[in-house]
Design a protein that fits this description.
single chain, alpha/beta, Arc Repressor Mutant, subunit A, Rossmann fold, 3 domains
Length: about 350
């Protein structure tokens, strides 16, 4: 056996990062093997030497070495320490999954992704909540500890630069970013502008049942693409239309069709219709973004338009597992009910 390399040259630990210390040690050893710095038969720094060098608990080091031993990467001999047993391996996929928020339709996406991945890879999930600083911090703090990155990007002027922190050959975009970043990265994304345009094109005859079509869309990171698709359709239509960004307390009009993306607006419309004795689908129409089980039963059923989040999760998992670099526009569905 070759003598152990200096622990400071072999292991990289940053106590300020949120990644557990033991995971940082595991990744450091794996990186050293992959790069050729460590080879089969090489001894590793002792638990006591690492603990002293980095002022960390011995338990974290034991946990890291046990994880590596359980995967057949290292072993130990009493009195002689730990050594590399296998330097010819393909690292398991260790997936960094970064979503914006967790809500009912993101849960559908996540469950489909995990069900397809099963035991073929490990997945850790994080959330940026549309905050570019959180987005940047999560990526910088975790870039060294994963070998595959599935990211739902914040759409911000700094996003392109932030994404360069990640391995460009192992980065996939999920749900959004197709227009802004899709020329560079593989993706499974919504086409917000095209999807809403095609919805109206498919139901243009039914639109004649309404006096006006109102897009009630409170401000969010993707609303401008939906608004563009909405306006592109209605500039060629004789049906009056309007985009309303200030939705709180918006005064509803009988005979209008409302396209909404916020469930608070849905509650407001249903409550107002009930107070005025209006029948949904006849006196007033509602089409709501994003399918949830509740929308199938409230007010005798709310028509929804939604990306197929289950398929999005499944397709992304398959792409990652098969090392493909595809560009997939996710299917957009209309689920018809009584409100439209």
């Amino acid at each position: 056996m070759k003598n152990a390399l200096n622990e400071q040259s072999l292991i990289k630990i940053n106590a300020q990062e949120s990644t557990p210390i033991y995971k940082q040690i595991v990744q450091s050893i794996r990186d050293a093997i992959t790069s050729g710095k460590l080879k089969q038969g090489d001894t590793l720094p002792s638990v006591n030497h690492i603990a002293a060098a980095f002022s960390i608990a011995r338990g974290s080091i034991f946990k890291a070495y046990n994880d590596l031993r359980n995967t057949g990467t290292i072993d130990s001999i009493p009195g002689k320490g730990y050594f590399v047993t296998n330097d010819n391996f393909t690292p398991d996929k260790n997936i960094f999954l970064l979503l914006s928020t967790f809500n009912p339709y993101r849960e559908v996406l996540f469950n489909a992704f995990i069900n397809e991945i099963k035991a073929k890879a490990t997945v850790d999930i994080y959330f940026h909540h549309h905050n570019v600083k959180v987005f940047e911090t999560l990526i910088k703090n975790h870039s060294a500890y994963y070998n595959t990155f599935v990211v739902m990007p914040v759409l911000h002027k700094d996003t392109k630069k932030i994404l360069t922190e990640l391995d460009q050959k192992r980065l996939y975009l999920l749900d959004s970013g197709m227009k802004e970043l899709g020329n560079k990265y593989p993706y499974v994304c919504q086409n917000y502008e095209k999807d809403i345009y095609n919805f109206f094109e498919s139901y243009k005859e039914r639109l004649n049942n309404y006096k006006r079509v109102v897009l009630l869309f409170s401000s969010n990171s993707r609303s401008y693409d939906v608004i563009t698709g909405f306006e592109n359709f209605f500039k060629h239509s004789a049906i009056p239309s309007i985009v309303e960004r200030e939705t709180v307390g918006y005064k509803l009009r009988k005979g209008d069709l409302y396209i909404i993306n916020d469930d608070n607006d849905l509650v407001h419309i249903i409550t107002t219709a009930k107070m005025n004795g209006w029948v949904l689908g006849k006196d007033l129409g509602i089409v709501s973004y994003h399918e949830t089980p509740l929308k199938s039963i409230i007010a005798e059923g709310i028509t929804t338009i939604t990306s197929d989040f289950g398929k999005m999760g499944t397709d992304m998992a398959k792409m990652v597992l098969n090392n493909k670099r595809e560009k997939i526009a996710n299917p957009f569905l209309t689920i018809e009910r009584n409100s439209f």
